[in-house]
Hints:
By secondary structure, this protein is of the alpha+beta class. The protein has helices spanning 2-20, 40-51; strands spanning 24-32, 60-65, 68-72, 77-81, 98-101, 105-113.
Amino acid sequence: MHELSIAMSLVEMAQEEAERISGQVQALHVRLGPLSGVFKDALLSSYEMASFDTPLQGSQLVIEDVPIVIYCSQCQVERTVDSLQWLCCPVCSTPATQILHGKELELTSLEIVS
Protein backbone atom coordinates (compact mmCIF):
# COMPACT_ATOMS: atom_id res chain seq x y z
CA MET A 1 0.00 0.00 0.00
CA HIS A 2 2.26 2.77 -1.27
CA GLU A 3 -0.57 5.26 -0.80
CA LEU A 4 0.39 5.48 2.87
CA SER A 5 3.94 6.59 2.05
CA ILE A 6 2.52 9.13 -0.41
CA ALA A 7 0.10 10.42 2.23
CA MET A 8 2.95 10.68 4.74
CA SER A 9 4.96 12.71 2.24
CA LEU A 10 2.00 15.03 1.64
CA VAL A 11 1.58 15.54 5.40
CA GLU A 12 5.29 16.26 5.78
CA MET A 13 5.33 18.81 2.95
CA ALA A 14 2.22 20.56 4.26
CA GLN A 15 3.58 20.63 7.81
CA GLU A 16 6.83 22.20 6.66
CA GLU A 17 4.98 24.93 4.79
CA ALA A 18 2.60 25.58 7.69
CA GLU A 19 5.53 25.89 10.09
CA ARG A 20 7.36 28.19 7.68
CA ILE A 21 4.48 30.67 7.65
CA SER A 22 3.19 29.93 11.18
CA GLY A 23 -0.20 28.71 10.03
CA GLN A 24 -2.62 25.81 10.38
CA VAL A 25 -3.39 23.60 7.37
CA GLN A 26 -7.09 23.29 6.66
CA ALA A 27 -6.90 21.40 3.34
CA LEU A 28 -4.50 19.97 0.78
CA HIS A 29 -5.53 19.99 -2.89
CA VAL A 30 -4.18 17.22 -5.08
CA ARG A 31 -4.64 16.40 -8.78
CA LEU A 32 -4.78 12.65 -9.40
CA GLY A 33 -4.88 10.82 -12.72
CA PRO A 34 -5.99 7.23 -13.22
CA LEU A 35 -2.61 6.31 -14.72
CA SER A 36 -0.69 7.52 -11.64
CA GLY A 37 -0.90 4.11 -10.01
CA VAL A 38 -2.53 5.61 -6.93
CA PHE A 39 -6.02 4.63 -5.82
CA LYS A 40 -8.10 7.60 -4.69
CA ASP A 41 -9.95 5.83 -1.86
CA ALA A 42 -6.75 4.28 -0.54
CA LEU A 43 -5.04 7.69 -0.58
CA LEU A 44 -7.94 9.29 1.29
CA SER A 45 -7.93 6.67 4.04
CA SER A 46 -4.12 6.70 4.18
CA TYR A 47 -4.22 10.47 4.61
CA GLU A 48 -6.40 10.08 7.68
CA MET A 49 -3.84 7.65 9.15
CA ALA A 50 -0.83 9.76 8.17
CA SER A 51 -2.28 12.97 9.60
CA PHE A 52 -3.48 11.36 12.85
CA ASP A 53 -1.85 12.89 15.90
CA THR A 54 -0.08 15.57 13.84
CA PRO A 55 -0.84 19.27 13.45
CA LEU A 56 -2.74 18.27 10.26
CA GLN A 57 -5.21 16.03 12.07
CA GLY A 58 -8.69 17.10 11.04
CA SER A 59 -7.52 18.72 7.82
CA GLN A 60 -9.03 17.66 4.53
CA LEU A 61 -7.47 16.03 1.49
CA VAL A 62 -9.30 17.31 -1.60
CA ILE A 63 -8.65 15.25 -4.72
CA GLU A 64 -9.35 16.52 -8.22
CA ASP A 65 -9.75 13.66 -10.70
CA VAL A 66 -7.76 14.24 -13.88
CA PRO A 67 -9.08 12.50 -17.01
CA ILE A 68 -6.88 10.63 -19.46
CA VAL A 69 -6.18 12.87 -22.45
CA ILE A 70 -4.30 11.59 -25.48
CA TYR A 71 -3.11 13.19 -28.68
CA CYS A 72 -4.50 11.40 -31.71
CA SER A 73 -1.95 11.47 -34.52
CA GLN A 74 -4.61 10.50 -37.05
CA CYS A 75 -7.16 13.20 -36.13
CA GLN A 76 -4.38 15.59 -34.99
CA VAL A 77 -6.37 16.65 -31.94
CA GLU A 78 -6.46 16.01 -28.18
CA ARG A 79 -9.09 13.50 -27.08
CA THR A 80 -10.36 12.39 -23.68
CA VAL A 81 -10.29 8.63 -23.21
CA ASP A 82 -12.87 6.93 -21.01
CA SER A 83 -11.18 3.59 -20.40
CA LEU A 84 -7.83 2.57 -18.93
CA GLN A 85 -7.99 -0.59 -21.00
CA TRP A 86 -8.62 1.13 -24.33
CA LEU A 87 -6.03 3.89 -24.85
CA CYS A 88 -7.19 4.67 -28.36
CA CYS A 89 -8.85 7.64 -29.98
CA PRO A 90 -12.57 7.41 -29.21
CA VAL A 91 -13.36 8.77 -32.70
CA CYS A 92 -11.07 6.88 -35.09
CA SER A 93 -9.73 4.08 -32.80
CA THR A 94 -6.07 4.91 -33.52
CA PRO A 95 -3.89 3.67 -30.62
CA ALA A 96 -2.51 6.48 -28.44
CA THR A 97 1.15 7.27 -28.90
CA GLN A 98 1.10 10.36 -26.65
CA ILE A 99 -0.61 10.53 -23.27
CA LEU A 100 -0.98 14.20 -22.35
CA HIS A 101 -2.84 13.91 -19.03
CA GLY A 102 -3.84 11.17 -16.64
CA LYS A 103 -0.51 10.37 -14.96
CA GLU A 104 -0.70 13.30 -12.52
CA LEU A 105 -0.08 13.07 -8.81
CA GLU A 106 0.42 16.71 -7.87
CA LEU A 107 -0.01 18.73 -4.72
CA THR A 108 -1.47 21.87 -6.25
CA SER A 109 -2.33 24.02 -3.24
CA LEU A 110 -2.73 24.28 0.51
CA GLU A 111 -5.40 26.08 2.47
CA ILE A 112 -3.63 27.54 5.49
CA VAL A 113 -5.01 29.90 8.11
CA SER A 114 -2.87 31.87 10.50
